[in-house]
Write a structure and sequence with these properties.
The complex is a heterodimer of chains A (206) and B (718). Chain A is mainly α. Chain A has helices at residues 2-34, 38-51, 57-68, 76-96, 101-117, 119-140, 145-161, 167-182, 195-205. In chain B, a hairpin with a 2-residue loop joins strand 16 and strand 17 (297-314). Chain B is mainly beta and 718 residues long. The chains are: A mainly alpha (206), B mainly beta (718). Chains A and B meet through helix 1, helix 2, helix 4, helix 6 and helix 7 of A and helix 1 of B.
Amino acid sequence: MKKIMTILVLSMSLTLTAQGTYEKGMQKAFGFWSSGKTTEAANLFERISSAEKNNWLPLYYAAQVRVLSSFGLKDETVITANLKAAQKNIDQAFEISNNNAELLVLQALLHTVWVAFDGATYGPKLSGTVYGLYAKAHKIAPNNPRVVYAKAEWEMGGAKFFGKDITPFCKDIQRSLELFATFELETPFHPNWGKERAEQIANDCK
Amino acid sequence: MKKILFILFLVLAGAQTYCQTKINGNVVDVKGNPIVGVNIYLEGTYDGTMSDENGSFEFSTSETGTQKLRCSFISYETKIILKKVSEMKGLKIKLREDVSSLDAVVLAAGTFNAGDNSKVTALKPLDVVTTASALGDPIAAFQTMPGTSTVAEDGRLFVRGGTAEETQIFIDGIRVFTPYAASANNTPTRGRYSPFLFDGMTFSTGGYSAEYGQALSGVLLLNTINTPEQEKTDIGIMSVGGAVGNTQIWCANSLSVNTSYINLKPYLNVFEDRNKWVQPFQVVAGEAVYRRSFSNGLLKLYTAFDSTNFELIQEDINVEEGISFKLKNHNFYLNSSYKGVLSANWSVLAGLSFTAANSAYAISKSEIENKEESIHAKLKFNRFFSNRFQVSFGADYFLTDFDEFYKEEHISEVAYGFQNKFGAVYGEFNVFFSKSLALKGGIRAGYHRFFERLKISPRVSLAYKTAENSQVSLAYGDFYQNPTNAILKFEQDLKTPKSQHYIVNYQYNNDGKILRTELYAKKYLNLVKYDTELPQYNSHYTSNGTGYAKGLDVFWRDNKSIKNVDYWFSYSYLDSQRDFKNYEKKAQPNFVNKHNISLVAKYWLEDWKSQVGLSYNFASGRTYTDPNKQGFLNQKTKAYHSLSLNWAYLISQQKILYFSLNNALGTKNINGYQFANNANDFGQFEKRALRPAADRFFFVGFFWTISEKGTDNQLDKL
């Protein structure tokens, strides 16, 4: 009995430490990110992903750090290198979790970096691809607030460009806010961004 | 209980401190400079760190035994060290630069890339449809690149002193046998294939890879789109006809179908041209692409059919009432390819194309009908050793079956033709010694049944990066190409025409600006000669023809310096002489211009949601023989000028209105002269200027894309 207890306690404590390492690691990486240390953050997320073989989240964040830090860059060589690494992360993440709406949104975001960098070159080429990704994400998860908001923001950009009415997309943004309010996270580390930006756009709509 | 707690304490404490091994070392680049930010960790564990500004790193691990230490950093090659953890101390790690990064050297001699995957893009896929003079034809868009000659009445690609037949076109690596649409004399032809099918194009004006044979001067490589983005329906209403297309996507499959009908009759009723049309130009065309992706590969099936007919009476100086010319052409093309990954390092491309072309001509009182059936089968393997070293090899098989029937009043039908079988194998390697030095070498061996000879052609290309934004490339190659169908149908006992290319290229590429200059020399051997005006069944043929071409190509593109303006400028200097066909002696052929200039500019008008563009083309005069004077090809026409304008107006995301006007200034260009067969009463041979059928061409189109709330439009289809 005593022996069984020992083993039981022992194995429990070991799983607890493993859990702890993941959480600690993720928290540390988010810490790096929020203090602007993007290389450190991306590297740490990547290291965590090497230990967490069946978890798409560290790869998702490694890619997200690289994608978001590429917006506004001017050097094509750097953007290409960054996004190449991010694309690798996304591809690996898709291998773990196929048909994942959050990953589709991130993939769309990656293409948007190119459109933002050189709209004349990449806009016509990639806008269809980006739309296709949002449409696919919407099919998979019509009630995911990020999908609803990101799709609406993208479409709103197109409508503004052509001087079209943006009210239908404002409605979508409003809907995303309702979804954000009731959105439940699967784990504390699941994607949970977009609400602030959606609120901002909702304000502009008024 | 106490005992349990004690054991537990021991175990837990042990887990923390027990067996902690320190791993440390230093990361440098090839030159010995420290690299900061390298991600270093034991694979499959949480243990790792990042190198500091001195390239140093240190971390602890509780892992034991042999482990994989992974060192990765953006723009460097990842390195994996397999070692016992206890030996991972004082590691000296050297990372090599990633040669696939954007700032690495490119093998550029002779080549223009148009695609998003290429590092230096001279022409973007969209340029095909937004270049004023191109009217949506990829061929015409590439005519604004240096190294091409302006042969306005022809419309095909003439590369560096070569005839149009010397440039071959490939779709997905598979040969296209009849790439150009049928057209009347003095009316430029167009490529048969719509530009929106392709997302990558490479145009090589010399020194190309051993993968491509049977081309003496150039190759144009077109790659079809792998996966369409969304389901949609396209509708186009044009001043010259209409087009409808639809794309469906299901599971791993997609199917795109397009049909079009072009009829020039309404246009010619409004804008008459110099021809007397009996039956104006009319084309019915349809094409379909089916794609299926497998877990390790992609299958593409492309098929196109078109049927052209027209009849007109063309001016002729020897025949007062003109010469009637009637043509019916049917063309079927099937291109299938499979690209797949065999294992981690092996990939394969297998492809087959089949062409069936049938043309029936009626010229004055004679009738000619010909049938061509051609096959190209290809198999290519690629072995990937690393980013720095790859080898590919493969085999090609070509089969052409050509039959022609000739009928004239009082003469019974004559039939002749040939069957041409040709096989070739090739091997090629690509090696990057560093980010600044790359070499490509290949060899191609072709065997021809007629000539019963093995022809070996070596090709080599070297590139060296001289500074951050500039590089120099060199290339050399031998090229063989069988004589054209026009010759082979009468005579097959000939040597294989050969060309040799020598190329020096300098390229500067920085922040939206590209400067590319290329010096080249080209030698021709074994060109076909004959002793009649045109190749005929009773001509005497030899392989004694020779020729040369040398020149300078300059290309400049800039899309950054002026806001909302993207422009490029091409200049080609070409010095070329030949002694071939029925030439009396070596002379500058009539398809050669010494100087060629193209200027293409596009301006985006934000407020008008419009892109306006212009393209200007200048070419110095071409040679012709004036029988009233001494000598052969003794005169030159006046220089050629053409200014084209276009305007694309985006009504909404899915509706585009497009206008274009070719030769807006209505310059009266002369492509050459035709002289009377017999001298007039004053002993002079009268002449007639060969002018384009119309000086100007006007086009209006409305393009509408219907997709589920989509953003797609047909800007890429114009």
